[in-house]
Design brief:
The chain has a 4-stranded antiparallel β-sheet with strand order 2-3-1-4, covered by helices on one side. The chain is an alpha+beta fold. It contains 11 helices and 4 strands, in the order H-H-H-H-H-H-H-H-E-H-E-E-H-E-H. The two termini are 43 Å apart. 57% of the residues lie in helices and 10% in strands. Strand 2 and strand 3 form a beta hairpin. It folds into 2 domains: 205 residues, no CATH class; 74 residues, Alpha-Beta Plaits. The relative contact order is 0.13.
């Protein structure tokens, strides 16, 4: 029997505690901010809120039922087995929505009359909550599952699936708002819904990619590449790769420096180059993430490495022709 280490237990507790915190924050944003302002949004939560407006089914229960149906469909159609973290996040969000609805007074922040601020703040907090789940390898289901099912038959990008799903849900809210005497301007509420979705998406991108935003430099300096490389290595502690190059037109050989750094270090590298060789040719590009020594540890790269859920995916077997 394999012995479980102390570090493994701590990592397990940390991951699931952070996912629970993310689920609670996500639920708070929807229950206490978006719902209290009669707002709307996208994804499974937006659909659950739309159903609550229409027939009174509590959002927490609706969120769970929607994801349960989607998971069942995905398992039947494409044979996917969902990992424990996805199931955990879905249950945690559903329970948190129901619990917060019972224990917190409505409009606890007093933002019900400020629809725009509610949309923005709700989008930010829900984005932070989802990001906490994502960073620990979890998933909140919803649109992710819809994208998997659609891609079984049509090659449509994840971004387009999200956009189409959110637009459909928010657009359908028109039929609810127009029959609600408390809503003076249904069109404005739909616009606020798109503001919420935009803010949510930006918040998720900022957290997941922003903390790893990096830049890569290609530096061409004919006579001073060694000195530039030495300064960057000694002053910033960044590795520099010297690459041999040949000009396609002149056929002249040259040396090119390749450097990857955090965005906060860009100005220091540019200053070093400017001091040594003002005539150097420099190409700078943005990098979504850098993993390895000196950057994010590879085992923490949840966004690109197979997570608990991805490892549990069972691809459907291809029939032999």
């Amino acid at each position: 029997m394999k012995k479980i280490s102390y570090q493994t237990v701590l990592r397990f507790l940390k991951e699931y505690s952070l996912m629970l915190l993310g689920a609670a924050l996500y639920a708070f944003a929807w229950v206490s901010i978006i719902e209290s302002a009669d707002g709307i949004g996208g994804g499974a939560s937006g659909l659950a809120l739309l159903i609550q407006y229409a027939i009174g089914l509590p959002m927490g229960i609706g969120f769970f039922v929607i994801n349960a149906i989607l998971i069942l469909l995905a398992m039947l159609i494409i044979g996917i087995k969902f990992g424990g973290k996805t199931i955990y996040c879905i249950i945690a969000i559903s329970v948190s929505m129901s619990f917060l609805k019972e224990v917190l007074p409505p409009d606890i922040l007093g933002l019900a009359n400020d629809k725009l601020l509610s949309s923005i703040l709700g989008g930010i907090l829900s984005g932070v909550g989802v990001s906490l789940c994502f960073m620990q390898g979890g998933s909140t289901g919803g649109t992710d599952i819809v994208a998997m099912i659609i891609n079984k038959y049509r090659a449509i990008s994840y971004g387009k699936v999200v956009m189409m799903t959110d637009c459909t849900i928010i657009g359908c809210s028109w039929f609810i708002y127009r029959n609600n005497p408390d809503i003076a301007n249904p069109l404005a509420m739909i616009i606020y819904g798109f503001v919420m979705v935009t803010t949510f998406g930006y918040s998720v991108d900022l957290i997941l990619a922003g903390n790893r935003q990096s830049s890569q430099f290609f530096i061409f300096s004919k006579n001073h590449f060694q000195e530039i490389a030495h300064r960057i290595t000694s002053e910033l502690g960044r590795g520099v790769t010297i690459i041999d190059g040949i000009g396609a037109y002149t056929q002249a050989t040259s040396k090119m420096l390749f450097v990857v750094c955090y965005k906060t270090e860009m100005n220091r590298i540019l200053r070093i180059i400017r001091e040594i060789d003002p005539h150097a040719f420099i190409s700078v590009g943005n990098v979504m993430g850098v993993y390895g020594q000196g950057f994010v540890k590879l085992e923490n790269a949840n966004s690109i490495i197979a997570t608990d859920d991805e490892k549990a995916v069972k691809k459907p077997k291809k029939l032999k022709s």
